[in-house]
C-alpha cells in the first residue's frame, strides 16, 4: 500500500518540519499488521515528496482478522489487503504522522495552520461507489480530484473496470487537514475495517473530522461507513455531529446508499433551522436590539443574527475557547463587512458564573444549553442570567423528552446527545420556568418548535421570559 504527499510551497523541504520526519532519513515503524516505511523520493526547495509505504505481514493480518471472530475462511488468506489502500493504511497514517495530524510543530510553529499547495497520490484505492463517490467525498473539501478506474485485467479489456481507482488530489490546504481527511475517508471509501470497532472510534472520528466533517454533505455516509454500520455507535456520532452543526439527529440517520443519479429526496426544513427561525422571531417579537447568545458554540445562531441590522449589538459567549475559534472561522470575521463586524463580539465565559459583561443587554438566548448543565448547577445559571445579568427578555429552548419516542434512531430511555445531563417533559420544563420567572420578576410564555404532535408535543420546547416592569 502506497500514499505520497507532495508540496511546492516556498522552501518545500520544510514539509519535513510539519511531518516531524527528516527528509534525509528513511524511517520504519512497526504497526499491528506489518511495517510502515517513510521515504522521500524527492526533496528540494522547489518540490518535495514524502511516501508512506505499508508492508503487510500476512500472518499478522490473519491474526488480526481472527480477533473479529470471523473464524476460518479463505478470504483471510486471499484478499487485496497487502496491495490496496484500506483502513490499515489509515492506521499507519495515524501512527506515523500523529503529531502532524494534531497540528503541532514545535520546531517551526509558524508553519502550522498555513494552507500550502499539496498533491496526494494513492495508486490503488478501493472505492465502493466508484469514482463518483470519490469526487463526492473530496471535492466539497476543496480538492481537485482525479479518480481513474483501474481495469480488472489490462490484458482483457472486456472485463471492464475493477472497484479500485488511481486517486490523485491537488489543492491548497493545511497539512493537518489533508492528513485527517485521508485518515477518515480512505476506510470510508473501502467501506471496511480490518480491526474491531468500539466506542473509541466515535471519538477518533470526531477528533479527525473536527472542522470539516460536521458540514460535509456526505457526513451521514461517512459516519456509517467509518463506524462499520453499527447503529449504536452511529447514533452517538450523529448526535454529536448534529450538535456541532446544530442539526437534528433524526435528519442525519437514514439508509446508507449511494444514489445513482446523485439526487436526494426533498426533505422538510431541518429542526435546527426551524429552531433558529423560532428564536429569531421571538427576539423580534420582544423588540430586542442587543442580544447575547449564551452558549453560542460554533456560531450558528450568530451567523443569522449578525447580518440583520435590527440587532445593533450581538455578543457570542461560550466556555470553550476552541468553539469560539471555530465560530470565528465560520463567521469569516476577516472578510465580514465593517458594518457587521462592528456589531459583533465573541467572549469566553460560563453560563453559571456572574459576569458583568453580560449586564445591560436587551435579550439573552439559551438555545439548547440548559440540558448540558448539571441539575445541581442550574440554580447558579439562574442567578447569573436572571438575577445578575437581568436582561429585558430571555429565550430558552430545550428538547422535549416526550417527543423522543418519535425518533426511530433513539433507543427507549436514551437522550438525544450523550452530553445531555437531563431532558425534560413539557410539565417539568414549565415547572422550572414558572418558578424562575416568579423568583426574579419575569412573566413567561411557551411556544412549540417543530411539528406539535397532538400526543407527545413538539420536538423542541421554548420559553420566552419578559421582565415585569417594577
TrEMBL record:
A Pfam family the protein falls into: Methyltransf_23
Keywords assigned: Magnesium, Metal-binding, Methyltransferase, RNA-binding, RNA-mediated gene silencing, S-adenosyl-L-methionine, Transferase
InterPro entries: 3'-RNA_MeTfrase_Hen1_bac, Hen1, Hen1_N, Hen1_N_sf, SAM-dependent_MTases_sf
Gene3D superfamilies referenced in this protein's UniProt entry, alphabetically: Hen1, N-terminal domain, Vaccinia Virus protein VP39
Cofactor: Mg(2+)
CDD domains, per the entry: AdoMet_MTases
UniProt EC number: 2.1.1.386
Catalytic activity, reaction form: small RNA 3'-end nucleotide + S-adenosyl-L-methionine = small RNA 3'-end 2'-O-methylnucleotide + S-adenosyl-L-homocysteine + H(+)
Domain Hen1 N-terminal span(s) in chain numbering: 1-242
Entries under NCBIfam families matching the protein: bacter_Hen1
Family according to the record: Belongs to the methyltransferase superfamily. HEN1 family.
Full protein name: Small RNA 2'-O-methyltransferase
Organism the protein comes from: Aquipuribacter hungaricus
Upper classification of the organism: Bacteria, Bacillati, Actinomycetota, Actinomycetes, Micrococcales
